[in-house]
Amino acid sequence: MSQIIPTITSGIAGPLGILHLPRFWQKACLGAAGKLHSDYPACGAGYDQMVLDALKIDREVFLTFIKEQKPTYVQLEKWILDQCGGSLDYDAIEELNKAIVGYKHDDETRKGILDSVGIEDTGAILDAINLNNLEDWHDFHSQELK
Questions:
Q1: How far are the Cα atoms of 22, 92, 114, 127, 131 from residue 97, in angstroms, in the given order?
Q2: Is the pLDDT of residue 1 over 70?
Q3: Residue 21 CB: number of other CB atoms within 10 A?
């Protein structure tokens, strides 16, 4: 069975406006199906947990929903609204989105990613979203297209 590297960026949001949620949904769905590449967690301690914390949704409740219901992305957003009593805390989502956009990897991680994809570290790419994208795309190409 093929292990899939997720390529939806953390910098995209669905209709509810929650950055990273589409990527998190993809990873959780692939993980539940046993198809997520082993280098990727279905629910990690970084952005994934930040999303859950902002929405005040328990990790295990979220993962159980994904595993048992196999929702489309739209169905996931509807479920989230239900879990949040029909309305979201848009201040919390705004803070989450700012934290995701503003997150920067440490120097060692940044240099490692850039080196692995063949880009000189000039200090031009600092944000984790773009660094993670570069790493995902490189890994996808290395695994799936060779």
A1: 13, 9, 24, 13, 17
A2: no
A3: 26
